[in-house]
Amino acid sequence: MLRNQNFPVEKIYVPTARRKTLDPEKVRAIAEDWLANGQKTPIQVRVDGERYVLVEGLHRLEAAKELGEKTIVGLLVQARPH
User: Is 29 helix (H, G, I), strand (E, B) or coil?
Assistant: First the structure.
């Protein structure tokens, strides 16, 4: 069963292909919502050695960075087999 955990923002790696989909306006909107309501939806990460790799939640992660958050709520998921 998956459960919410806090992950250190600086240990989350964003794959290059995912970074290309970043929309700064969406990040700002999420950050503003978090200031009023907090984080509602966790991101998803998987373990890769000493770091985590972002699976889902690029805009939420970037909003957390914009707000200066040190941790973000997320779910640890298993890597998908290739």
Answer: helix
